[in-house]
Write a structure and sequence with these properties.
Radius of gyration: 24 Å
Bound molecules: alpha-D-galactopyranose
Largest sheet: 7 strands, mixed
GO cellular component, one term: cytosol
Domain GHMP kinase N-terminal: 167-247
Distance between the termini: 29 Å
Strand order of the largest sheet: 1-15-2-3-8-4-5
Protein name: Galactokinase
Family: Belongs to the GHMP kinase family. GalK subfamily.
Pathway: Carbohydrate metabolism; galactose metabolism
Number of strands: 15
Amino acid sequence: MDYADQQIPVFTALNDVFGGLVPSLANIERWNGLAEEFERRYGRKPSYIARAPGRVNLIGEHIDYSLFGVLPAAVEPDILIACGTHGEESCTVVVDNLHPKYDRKIFEPATTSVSKPTISGDAAHTEEWHLDINKKELRWESYVKAGYYGVLERFFPAATTLSSGANQGPVPVDLLVTGAVPAGSGLSSSAAMVVASTLAFLAVNGKLDPSNVDKITKGELVQMSMENEKRVGVNSGGMDQAASVMSDPASALYISFYPELKASPVPLPHGVVFVCANSLVVSDKAVSAKRCYNLRVVETLVAARVLARSLNVPLGAEERVTLREVVGRSVGEDIQGGKVLSADALAEALQSIAKKLDVLRSRDGAAVAAGRSGVTLEEMIEMSGLQRDVFQKVYLSWIEVEATEFELYKRTKHVLLEALRVLQFRQICLDASTAADSAGTGDMGVYQKKLGKLMNESQESCAELFECSCPELDQLTKLARSAGAFGSRLTGAGWGGCTVSIVAEDEVDGFIAKIKEEYPPYKGLEDGALKEAIFATRPGRGACVLKL
Ligand code: GLA
């Protein structure tokens, strides 16, 4: 069974959450402490604790929203949310955070009447939930509200809930949050928050009970959490949510999004560990979205249309096609007819199309003479072949971006070659595992080096073509290589946050010590902060709920 089709695990003992007594002992204090603090603050014990881990992406950056596969793994740092219902009639939510920086928030879902045009041209009025998420400012409770939205929409459609009376509606909820995934670190604290919040609201409303016939699968939880996170203002792909929900201990995950969400384990070669190191540059996707993340989403989508036209790929008049779809269609992939490209065929198509990207460069004489490839908005509209108003509607009406030039060529070159690197990385891991089964784990060096090389190429491409690195990330990855890593790259959205390095298992302590000594922002950090900033990680398990 694919991970996406599995049920969300609901455990009743901490040993089961961590798969054994020893790891559970290491965590018991934190979980008990959270439950006790919940009781102190709310006057009753919590009913559940929802857990969602952060993730590290080993390779495949900024390609999930073009629907290419990625290769992340869950990390140990996670978000925990203790929750329970309280006796009030209304469906008030009270949310507290163990971190003193975040103060208590109280909110209540309201319904609003929305009118939507119908095919006949008349307006139809429907009721929708409204939770007042502030997209202009980053507020911690926005992620909690975002999680709640999906649960309300999926299980308590506003119109039916209103007409069926209060006892059919969502219950009032108390929540207490604690997070060990540093915000803005590229380890996906935001997805972990949204997944944990979604799970908490599902659990407390009885939607994960064994008796509930309408239970959601891991795949549905991923889809819900993706939609939920968009409500905070970032049009991210599905990698973070998928990794947080579907990870399995001991292996990384190959997550593919097209034609549907799927995840399969990828064994990592013996003798290596992955080390996360935080550049300590805080990168907040939601704050910089219109100049960074969301801009990249628009650039890659418009590029997909321009490329499709040049490759004579069939395209709907107002279709917002993705690069993955264009690559598939260009070699006759037919999803409806059940003809999906194999990994080898996809790799071949990527290699061939990556050589045909000149159509995405500016044709403006001055720009060409100055060696610039970016295009202006005007040029981009013309290249798309769409009328201005249609272009606006398809590409700009739903997302806020700010730019004078759009780098269609560079972004696409990164996406296609990064997608190829993911396929190669996965194959090397599978080959290493087969080799280990037949000849033992004695000589894994060649595989480790190959993986490192792909990671280095990925970093270079993120820095030069996708322009999502920053001087500190460049410096940290360089230091990692000279401290003995086989390879090192930024992980997550970039523009700050963490790097991930592949390091020989028996050299990891020396490696970490060297980086601590040599990366200037680490000087003067206390032990606790340093341990959070740089740590070796092994793939951990995905999100779950503990029923107390
Ligand atoms: C963020 C997004 C992901 C992905 C990465 C970049 O983490 O949430 O969906 O796009 O950036 O690979």
